[in-house]
């Protein structure tokens, strides 16, 4: 009895009881679900993962053929999700930095533009923006036969954007050598790197592959589908508005005196921003930026509205083909949880590194 | 929707005392899964009344159970919502241009009796000058998820080495809009649904051509939940009643002239000689009521997709076996 009066013991007991109750509820739901599923004759289990998927995936980063298994179809969908998430986060961060700095600009035109951009983009739902860009991409451009060629070799059509391409192997070699050259050089780094890059391409005899109209559409070169283009454009423009606000807020949070101190030391505004303000602003920026990156990853599931085959669309298709909704949705939940936790771990690590170290 | 359905599976009490017939009778209304709008098969008209071949199938079941063709609610479902909705009890019957396949049959739903035989088709703009699958190499094809056509695209492309480029969408209207805007060269789905899309959504229907994608036919068949045999029988024989009435020459117009028929087959069918309806748990005159309220299969076909409709489809494979079609009425005894 006396033990129960001890707040710590009592607290511990309550927690154990709560945990047990939660575990019971989860067990009951799992048990009930299994019973209901078998009573309704709905198949369960994971054996479908080995069977051939047989449905098409319109485009993918990883190679895919309808003969591949359902498991591989999930992996291909996941590959697409990671690919568009990474591109969206990168693009939105770069554009968002521009938007944030513009919003703080003392130039009234630039400042107004930054503020206007944020207001418009932030207040329109992402799905509406995606549908708008997709409708524009398929309705505004001409059919492949009447393709619009603004720059020689670049074709804009309602089937997508087609660009000239260099052979991948030679391009990779040239980039690698160029980077090595840039690292070895002490001065004229950029020029030296570009020179080595160009020299490699010329020496290996790389030829630019220009897309050409064959049959229904363009072949060769790089093709960006309207689905991909609309998705990237929509999600980057939307996310950049939020990123811009986070960056602007972070910079504003640094005391004005820091700017004045920089000027007093004779630093230019650019140097002050780069060396003094941004390092301090980053500490304010990183936590909200983490949530923004996480929402961006989750927002990629809206891609199914414009027909880009990310993981969500693949999962929907698998559910229809196999009827195994619970297994498929568990995979979807598990995958997104893993991606989100990885992003937040990475950002937390970066945050810890950037934090002021108290000695 | 899918998530609600899942929650229903997770939390529903496992004990299933009530049969579907009892549930429907207690509710006083039938709940029927419908499409998001395919004129001829299932779509609301300008007054908001649902019309179509699949809709009339539901109405026939409502007449069999309640004697009232309006005692039915329609729930529009996307391709991938429809099967979970049936499995989890959101709807009582799913007649939504649903192809009878082994995988579906083996996984929680039961098929009743085909109400439409159909091939999968491609629709292309006429100006491309293509009229057969073999010439479609490299074509972009708009496909909707949640149908058997996704697999047909992959199969055809593989078999004939066409390298078709599927563009897959999640909902019906996006798929059709993408096709008409020119994003794809072709649209694939059931040929009758293509005819419906062409008649109702093309600016000029004559600019489009439809041809079969495969040599195989599909049986579009209303489905019910697995495991309730009585309910499956009721739906099966409500559909059979419409086909049999056509075979016997009974229509909604001439039904009363059979009141003093001496043909034992007709007497059993119309319930004048008792036994058929009560065996199913219905009224003995359920078939007569279906014919009076909804009509026989020919009337339903002509009104929704045939000569009296905007689609003007031929009976073709959907004629009775004695007219060279595939419709084979079962025996009412």
Describe the structure.
The complex is a heterodimer of chains A (359) and B (333). Chain A is mainly α and 359 residues long. Chain A has helices spanning 2-5, 7-39, 70-104, 108-122, 126-139, 168-184, 189-203, 226-253, 256-264, 269-299, 311-322, 325-354; strands at residues 155-157, 160-163, 212-214, 217-219, 222-224. In chain A, the strands form two sheets. Chain A has a three-stranded antiparallel β-sheet with strand order 1-2-5. In chain A, strands 3-4 form a two-stranded antiparallel sheet. Chain A starts with a helix and ends in a 5-residue tail after the last helix. The model of chain A has no long low-confidence stretch (mean pLDDT 87). With 333 residues, chain B is of the alpha/beta class. Chain B has two domains: 2-115 and 221-323, D-Maltodextrin-Binding Protein, domain 2 (3-Layer(aba) Sandwich); 119-218, D-Maltodextrin-Binding Protein, domain 2, CATH 3.40.190. In chain B, helix 3 crosses helix 12 (286-293) and helix 9 (229-248) crosses helix 12 (286-293). Classes of the chains: A mainly alpha (359), B alpha/beta (333). At the A-B interface, helix 2, helix 5, helix 11 and helix 12 of A face helix 1, helix 4, helix 6, strand 8 and helix 7 of B.
- CATH T-level fold name of the largest domain in chain A: MetI-like fold
The ordered string of helix (H) and strand (E) elements of chain B is HHEEEHEHHEEEHEHEHEEHHHHH
CATH architecture of the largest domain in chain B: 3-Layer(aba) Sandwich
Q: Percent of residues of chain A in helical segments?
A: 55-70%
The neighbouring-strand order within the major sheet of chain B is: 8-7-9-6-10
Query: Whole-number average pLDDT of chain B?
Result: 89
Total domains of chain A: 2
Write down the CATH class of the largest domain in chain B: Alpha Beta
Radius of gyration of chain B: 20 Å
Q: What is the approximate shape of chain A?
A: globular
The helix-strand sequence of chain A is HHHHHEEHHEEEHHHHH
Question: Largest sheet of chain B, described in full?
Answer: 5 strands, mixed
Strand order of the largest sheet of chain A: 1-2-5
* Greatest chain-chain contact: A-B, 48 and 53 residues
- Give the count of helical stretches of chain A: 12
Assign the CATH superfamily of the largest domain in chain A.
MetI-like
Strand content of chain B: 15-25%
């Amino acid at each position: 009895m006396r033990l129960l009066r001890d707040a710590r013991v009592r607290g511990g007991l309550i927690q154990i009881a709560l945990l047990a109750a939660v575990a019971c509820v989860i067990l009951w739901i799992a048990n009930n679900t299994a019973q209901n599923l078998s009573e309704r004759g709905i198949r369960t289990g994971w054996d479908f993962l080995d069977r051939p998927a047989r449905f098409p995936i319109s485009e993918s980063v990883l190679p895919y053929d309808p003969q591949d298994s359902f498991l591989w179809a999930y992996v291909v969908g996941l590959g697409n999700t990671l690919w568009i998430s990474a591109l969206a986060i990168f693009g939105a961060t770069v554009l968002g930095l521009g938007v944030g700095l513009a919003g703080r600009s003392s130039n009234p035109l630039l400042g107004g533009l930054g503020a206007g951009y944020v207001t418009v983009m932030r207040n329109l739902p992402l799905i509406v923006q995606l549908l708008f860009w997709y409708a524009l991409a398929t309705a505004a451009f001409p059919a492949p036969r009447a393709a619009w060629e603004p720059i020689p070799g670049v074709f804009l059509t309602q089937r997508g954007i087609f660009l000239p391409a260099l052979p991948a192997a030679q391009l990779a070699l040239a980039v690698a050598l160029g980077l090595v050259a840039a690292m070895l050089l002490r001065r004229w780094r950029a020029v030296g790197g570009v020179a080595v890059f160009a020299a490699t391409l010329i020496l290996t005899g790389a030829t630019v592959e220009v897309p050409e109209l064959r049959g229904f559409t363009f072949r060769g070169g790089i093709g960006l589908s309207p689905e991909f283009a609309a998705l990237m454009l929509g999600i980057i423009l939307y996310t950049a508005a939020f990123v811009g606000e986070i960056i602007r807020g972070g910079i504003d949070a640094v005391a004005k005196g820091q700017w004045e101190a920089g000027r007093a030391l004779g630093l230019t505004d650019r140097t002050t921003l780069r060396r003094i303000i941004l390092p301090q602003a980053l500490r304010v920026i990183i936590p909200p930026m983490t949530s923004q990156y996480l929402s961006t990853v989750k927002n990629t599931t809206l891609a199914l509205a414009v027909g880009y085959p990310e993981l969500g669309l693949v999962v929907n298709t698998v559910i229809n083909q196999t009827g195994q909704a619970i297994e498929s949705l568990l995979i979807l939940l598990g995958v997104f949880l893993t991606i989100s936790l990885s992003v937040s771990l990475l950002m937390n690590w970066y945050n810890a590194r950037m934090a002021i170290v108290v000695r | 929707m899918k998530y609600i359905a899942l929650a229903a599976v997770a939390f529903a009490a496992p004990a299933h005392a009530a049969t579907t017939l009892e549930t429907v009778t207690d509710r006083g209304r039938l709940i029927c899964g419908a499409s998001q709008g395919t004129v001829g098969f299932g779509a609301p008209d300008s007054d908001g009344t649902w019309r179509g071949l699949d809709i009339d199938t539901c109405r026939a079941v409502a007449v069999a159970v309640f004697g009232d063709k309006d005692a039915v609610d329609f729930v529009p479902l996307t391709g991938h919502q429809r099967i979970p909705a049936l499995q989890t009890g959101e709807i009582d019957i799913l007649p939504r241009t649903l192809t009878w396949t082994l995988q579906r049959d083996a996984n929680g739903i039961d098929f009743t009796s085909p109400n439409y035989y159909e091939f999968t088709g491609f629709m292309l703009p006429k100006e491309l000058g293509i009229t057969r699958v073999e010439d479609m190499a490299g074509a972009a094809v708009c496909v909707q998820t949640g149908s058997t056509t996704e697999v047909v695209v992959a199969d055809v492309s593989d078999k004939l080495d066409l390298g078709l480029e599927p563009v897959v969408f999640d909902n019906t209207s996006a798929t059709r809009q993408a096709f008409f805007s020119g994003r794809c060269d072709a649209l694939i789905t059931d040929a009758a649904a293509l005819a419906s899309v062409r008649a109702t959504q093309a600016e000029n229907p004559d600019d489009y051509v439809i041809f079969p994608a495969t040599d195989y036919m599909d049986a579009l068949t209303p489905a019910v939940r697995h495991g309730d045999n009585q309910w499956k029988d009721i739906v099966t024989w409500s559909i059979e009643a419409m086909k049999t009435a056509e075979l016997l020459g009974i229509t909604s117009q001439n039904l009363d002239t059979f009141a003093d028929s001496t043909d034992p087959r007709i007497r059993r069918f119309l319930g004048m000689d008792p036994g058929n309806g009560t065996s199913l748990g219905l009224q003995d005159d359920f078939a007569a009521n279906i014919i009076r309220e909804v009509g026989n299969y020919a009337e339903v076909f002509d009104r929704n997709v045939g000569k009296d409709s905007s689609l003007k489809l031929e009976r073709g494979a959907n004629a009775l076996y004695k007219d060279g079609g595939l419709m084979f009425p079962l025996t009412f005894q």
